[in-house]
Amino acid sequence: MKNLTKRTITGIFLVIIVLGGIWLHQFSYVFIGALLLSGSIYEYYLLVETKVAVPQKLTGIITALTIYTVSVLVAAGLIDSLFYLLVMAELMMIMITELFRRQEQPTSAMAHTIFGIIFISVPYSLFPYMAFGYEGTETILSGGITPFSPGLMLGFFVLSWSFDTGAYLFGSWFGKHKLLKRLSPEKSWEGFFSGLIITVLIAWPVSLWINITDIKGWIIIGIIISLSGTLGDMLESMIKRDAGVKDSGSLLPGHGGILDRFDSLILSLPFVFLYMILFG
C-alpha cells in the first residue's frame, strides 16, 4: 500500500511535468525529449558499468544528444538529413578514444557505449518526427515552426500510462500466471490483458480529444503500445538482471529510475512511428 501511494504521487508529478511540457510549447516539447533521453542513457551506462568494462558515459551522452538535436532540426525542416553524418564522426571518435583509456576489456566498454546510443537515442530521435509536420492539437503557447502538433505524443503517453497502470493494478490483485518469470516475476498474463483492455477503452476518449487519426487508428496504436511496450519492459528487465540490480535508479520514488519508467517507449515509439508513416 505504501509503494502504491509513492507510485501514485510520483505518477501525478510525471503527468504534470511530461504532458505539461509536451503540450506547453515547441521548445518545452523538445526539452522534455532531451531530458528523458539524457536520464535514460545515463542510467543505462550506470547499469552496465563494471570494474573491467566501463562505458564512455560523457561521449556516449554527447553522441546521443547530437542524434536527438539533428533529428529535431531535420524534422523541423531547418537542416538537411546529411547532417546525420556528424554522428558517424562521433562514433569514430568513441572508437579512437577507447585506444587511450587503458581498459581491461576495451571491446566490451566500446560495445556498451555504442549499444547504449542505439538502444536509447534512436527511439528518442523519433520524438520530434512525431510532432513536426502534424496538424490538429495545438500547443498551449503559440509560436514557432509550423506545422507542429504535440497531439500524437500526448495520446501516446496517455495510452502508454493507461496500459502500465491497468497492468500494474490488476496484475497485483489478480496476477497468477507469470508472463516471463525468468526476467520479470511480478508481471502476469492477467495484468497484461487487463492493461490491454483498459488501453483499448481509453483509445475512444483519446480519439475525441486528438483527431490526428480516427478511433480505429488510436485503438491500433493502443494495441501496439501494449505489445511492444511490454517487450521493451522485458528488455530492460533482462539488462537489469544481467547487472544484478532491481531498478535502474532511484530518482522516481515508487517507480525506480527514468529508464524504469520509460523503458516501454524504447520499442513502442518506433513501432507507433512506423504505423503512422505507413497507415496513419
Identify the overall geometry.
globular
**Helical/strand content category:** mainly alpha
The count of β-strands is: 2
What oligomeric assembly is this protein in? Answer: single chain
Mean pLDDT: 89
How would you characterize the largest beta sheet? 2 strands, antiparallel
List keywords for this structure.
two-stranded antiparallel sheet, globular, 69% helix, 2 strands, mainly alpha, 280 residues, 10 helices, 3% strand
What does this structure look like?
The protein has helices at residues 2-24, 26-48, 57-75, 85-98, 106-124, 151-174, 189-209, 215-243, 258-262, 265-279, and strands at residues 178-180, 184-188. It is mostly helical. A two-stranded antiparallel ribbon has the order 1-2. The protein has one domain (2-279). The model has no long low-confidence stretch (mean pLDDT 89). The chain is globular. The chain is 69% helix and 3% strand.
In short:
It is built from ten helices and two strands, in the order ααααααββαααα. With 280 residues, the chain is mostly helical.
Describe how the helices and strands are arranged.
Elements: H1 2-24, H2 26-48, H3 57-75, H4 85-98, H5 106-124, H6 151-174, E1 178-180, E2 184-188, H7 189-209, H8 215-243, H9 258-262, H10 265-279
Helix pairs in contact: 1-2, 2-3, 2-5, 3-4, 3-5, 4-5, 5-10, 6-7, 6-8, 7-8, 8-10
